[in-house]
Amino acid sequence: MARRPRLLPAVGTARNLLAASLEGLLADPARPGGREAGRPQPAPADLPLVLVACSGGPDSLALAAVAAHFAHIGRCRVGAVVVDHGLQAGSAGTAGRAADAARALGLDPVEVYRVTVERDGVGPEAAARGARYAALDDAASRLGAVAVLLGHTLDDQAEQVLLGLARGSGTRSLAGMPERRGPYLRPFLELRWADTEAICGFYGLDPWHDPTNLDPAYARSRVRGEVLPFLEDRLGPGIARALARTARILGQDADLLEQLSAEAYASLRTDGDDGTVLLPEDGLRSLPAALRQRVLALAALELGAFQPSFERLRAAESLLDRKGSAGPVQLGGKVSVHRQVRGRSVLRGEPSYGSLVLRNNGSNNGPGGKHSRRPIQE
Asked: Is the Cβ–Cβ distance between 263 and 291 less than 8 Å?
């Protein structure tokens, strides 16, 4: 009998990370079934289903291989969703090969989604991301998956922090990608790209390498191919881990600030006429700046805006100074805010007097409209 290859340390680490990420979702390990005579058996239909978002690249293919282990030992069923964005020549063939690789690992079901990427005023990466998550949402809902696994690594997290710094972003953006958001899990945020390459080698997989990852036309590609290597050369090889650690620390801070701002918003917000949202000036002034800006952003998001910029939020805050113009200030997505002044139609003591009034001036983007949900941030 041929001796089984010694388990690669990166594979053992990856399995432990995935088990921790899926804690509470996997079936009891004492459950019978899974392996018989060393060969994987079909997973029972009543086991929880986990989906892997698989592009065929090293990270997602390594994740698929590691996840397949949990199906083979009877802890869950594992399927895969391959999203073909149709943005590159031969994308259908690439998606088909990724699906074949997932099936060869024993994943079932394996589905390929062909999506149409519509820019709709956003950049190509954001548009592709939106289309991808829409497909993953649909697959998870239709198939009844308990989780969708994403193959982002520590290096991806470091890139995200650097990009946020370059944009002058706030705490949430610098916190990078969360380990968990709804059904989406990122179990490999402690692994490096080299680890996923090694895992693919261990399983005899031939991953696809996306040519856009090193295309200098994209900011993320420049960070990957030029900025991070330069920083590691000049500051030491630990820079990627330091950036990822920063993201983890800021993520905890961002979670607390968002909880406090949501509570403040709920206590201050009232409905105005014609679908407006009223925020009392005195209440806003009493908040620390970090919460005040987030409360204004929550109101704008509720009315259909995308995340307002820091500059727009500061302009809205300036209305509280009661100097100069009473507005309106545009917050994006046809959402504006103005200070309600006393006049013939608004008397002292009426609900809107002494408040900032936020309004959606469009016809289709109000509460419940197509932009009423916060866009997914990776």
From this structure: no
HEC-encoded secondary structure of the chain: CCCCCCCCHHHHHHHHHHHHHCCCCCCCCCCCCCEECCEECCCCCCCCEEEEECCCCHHHHHHHHHHHHHHHCCCCEEEEEEEECCCCCCHHHHHHHHHHHHHHCCCCCEEEEECCCCCCCCCHHHHHHHHHHHHHHHHHHHHCCCEEECCCCHHHHHHHHHHHHHHCCCHHHHCCCCCEECCEECCCCCCCHHHHHHHHHHCCCCCCCCHHHHCCCCHHHHHHHHHHHHHHHHHCCCHHHHHHHHHHHHHHHHHHHHHHHHHHHHHHCEECHHHCEEEEHHHHHCCCHHHHHHHHHHHHHHCCCCCCCHHHHHHHHHHHHCCCCCCCEEEECCEEEEECCCCCCCCCCCCCCCEEEEEECCCCCCCCCCCCCCCCCC
Handedness of CA 359, 362, 367, 372 (dihedral sign): negative
For residues 149 and 142, what is the distance between their CA atoms, to the nearest angstrom?
A: 16
Q: How does pLDDT run along the chain (378 residues), one tens digit per residue?
A: 455 568 899 999 999 999 999 999 998 875 554 444 444 555 677 899 999 999 999 999 999 999 999 999 999 999 999 998 877 888 889 999 999 999 999 999 999 999 888 876 667 777 888 889 999 999 999 999 999 999 999 999 999 999 999 888 888 889 999 999 999 999 999 999 999 999 999 999 999 988 877 788 888 889 998 999 999 999 988 999 999 999 999 999 999 999 999 999 999 999 987 889 999 999 999 999 999 999 999 999 999 888 888 999 999 999 998 777 777 899 887 899 998 875 444 444 444 568 999 999 874 444 444 333 333 233
Give the whole-angstrom CA distance, residue 153 versus residue 307: 26
- In contact, 57 and 150? CB cutoff 8 Å: no
pTM of the shown model: 0.80
